[in-house]
């Protein structure tokens, strides 16, 4: 057999081995689930709206300067957000690591040592009987010096390494959306707590005004007792009502402290008073909100984008796991110098050494671990599909709920305002009737209590209105799109 035939035979054998390995490495067929990205064309009970309030930057959406200062501070100091930013850095480094895996690994190495062969061994005896001319005997022990470079590279035939890098990129972008989602929720939580604080201030002011009214009524009933127009029971009832209302004052003060500290925690500082202007709370009117189209949730909501990117990453993970069934081709090479004496180390070609090798490996018999990894990757992909659909459905329902809530709270606030006006007037009427003995003290007490409760409910409704404005902004995906927080 001549040399050409041997080469041709070698090539044929290599191709045959590669084909055989590929044949036996086929991946099993798996059942997959395709995600459903369809959403209704408009929100239930709402007309189509081409405008979308989510595109408004938070500094333009929230016009209270004290609130803007709190949000701006939180975006710099909030610990949860800073933790998320470090997770983003970890994901970015994962992309770099995956990118480096499909590039050749090149390194330098050098070494020095010596080797002493035992005389009564096969190698020692062979060296002792070698016919070497006098003065040119092999050194004993034998020094060894080496310097060179080496390289190794896995040829990415099935795009296993490239898909792993793409999956890492998708997860990095998913981390970016996770950061945006944290920003959106952080802004909403601070704004909601701020409006709650304003509401508590107003409730405290109502309680103080009511205490003054009740003290005046107590003075009147004491005077009437002296004039024998009221009895001790009426006096005690009025005193009890004053004490009850005063106890409410301290309950509200405690809620104010806790709400202030919740805001302080969110902006990353120790407890201190929160600057605010509570007097204008009753005059606050929620801005008209534009809901846009449900399909815009796919682009505006960070959690929906995060779920979408995580789904894309899991699909690539399946491809990576599938590629493990197929043969892999590795190439290694090295070049350098080696000699037993440093003065001969750089002599060329005597001290020059080099190597080049390639190898093909493929799983043939025990593939249980690869199959298990493949099945698990597919299961995680199906999980990601359902998680994406759930996140999208939840986003739509949140917007629909808040849109309905805004409309219902507007009607409720109007009715409660009229109720407060009626009960406020009834306090004066009941006092006049009580003085003229045309109403008993219980009617006066119940009127005062009803008026207090109605004022509390009115403030509570106003707070719910402002929180609904905050929550619809968050539900639509607003807040993250500030100038320094945009998507890459």
What order do the helices and strands come in, and which of them pair?
Layout: H1 3-24, H2 58-61, H3 65-77, H4 79-101, E1 105-115, H5 122-128, E2 142-155, H6 160-226, H7 232-266, H8 297-300, H9 302-323, E3 328-339, E4 352-361, H10 368-435, H11 441-476
Antiparallel strand pairs: 1-2, 2-3, 3-4
Protein name: TolC family protein
Subcellular location: Cell membrane
Signal peptide: 1-27
Relevant terms:
single chain; 488 residues; alpha+beta; Outer membrane efflux proteins (OEP); four-stranded antiparallel sheet; 4 strands; 10% strand; disordered N terminus; disordered C terminus
Characterise the protein shown here.
The chain has eleven helices and four strands. With 488 residues, it is α+β, with helices and mostly antiparallel strands. It folds into two domains: 30-102 and 157-327 and 367-476, Outer membrane efflux proteins (OEP); 105-128 and 136-155 and 328-361, Outer membrane efflux proteins (OEP) (Single Sheet), CATH 2.20.200. The protein has a four-stranded antiparallel sheet, with no helix packed on it. The longest helix is centred in the C-terminal third of the chain and has 68 residues, at 368-435. The model is unreliable at 1-14 and 483-488 (pLDDT under 50).
């Amino acid at each position: 057999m001549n040399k050409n035939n041997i080469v041709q035979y070698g090539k044929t054998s290599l191709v045959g081995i590669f084909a055989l390995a590929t044949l036996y490495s086929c991946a099993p067929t798996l059942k997959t689930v395709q995600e459903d990205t369809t959403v209704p064309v408009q929100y239930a009970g709402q007309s189509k709206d081409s405008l979308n309030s989510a595109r408004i930057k938070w500094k333009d959406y929230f016009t209270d300067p004290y609130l803007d200062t709190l949000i701006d501070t939180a975006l710099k100091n909030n610990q949860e957000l800073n933790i998320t930013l470090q997770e983003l850095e970890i994901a970015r480094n994962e992309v770099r690591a995956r990118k480096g895996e499909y590039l050749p690994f090149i390194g330098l190495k050098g070494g020095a040592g010596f080797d002493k062969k035992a005389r009564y061994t096969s190698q020692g005896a062979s060296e002792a009987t070698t016919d070497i001319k006098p003065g040119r005997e092999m050194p004993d022990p034998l020094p060894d010096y080496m310097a060179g470079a080496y390289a190794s590279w896995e040829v990415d035939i099935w795009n296993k390494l490239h898909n792993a890098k793409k999956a890492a990129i998708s997860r990095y972008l998913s981390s970016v959306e996770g950061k945006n989602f944290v920003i959106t929720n952080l802004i909403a939580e601070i704004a909601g707590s701020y409006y709650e604080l304003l509401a508590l201030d107003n409730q405290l002011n109502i309680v103080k005004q009511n205490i003054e009214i009740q003290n005046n009524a107590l003075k009147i009933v004491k005077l009437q007792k002296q004039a024998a127009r009221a009895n001790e029971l009426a006096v005690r009832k009025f005193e009890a009502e004053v004490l009850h209302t005063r106890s409410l004052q301290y309950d509200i003060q405690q809620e104010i402290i806790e709400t202030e500290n919740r805001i302080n925690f969110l902006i990353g500082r120790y407890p201190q008073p929160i600057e605010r202007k509570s007097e204008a709370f009753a005059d606050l009117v929620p801005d008209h909100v534009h809901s846009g189209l449900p399909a815009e949730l796919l682009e505006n909501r960070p959690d929906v984008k995060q779920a979408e990117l995580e789904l894309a990453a899991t699909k690539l993970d399946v491809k990576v796991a599938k590629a493990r069934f197929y043969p892999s081709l590795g190439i290694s090479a090295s070049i350098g110098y080696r000699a037993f004496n440093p003065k001969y180390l750089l002599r060329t070609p005597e001290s020059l050494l080099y190597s080049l090798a390639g190898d093909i490996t493929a799983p043939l018999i025990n593939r249980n671990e690869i199959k298990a990894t493949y099945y698990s990757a597919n299961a995680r992909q199906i999980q990601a599909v359902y998680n994406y659909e759930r996140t999208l459905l939840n986003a739509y329902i949140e917007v629909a709920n808040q849109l309905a809530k805004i409309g219902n709270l507007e009607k409720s606030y109007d009715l409660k305002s009229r109720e407060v006006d009626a009960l406020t007037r009834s306090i004066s009427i009941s006092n006049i009737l009580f003085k003229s003995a045309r109403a008993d003290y219980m009617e006066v007490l119940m009127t005062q209590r009803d008026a207090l409760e109605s004022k509390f409910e009115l403030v509570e409704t106003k707070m719910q209105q402002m929180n609904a404005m905050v929550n619809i902004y968050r539900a639509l995906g607003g807040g993250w799109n500030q100038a320094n927080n945009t998507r890459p």
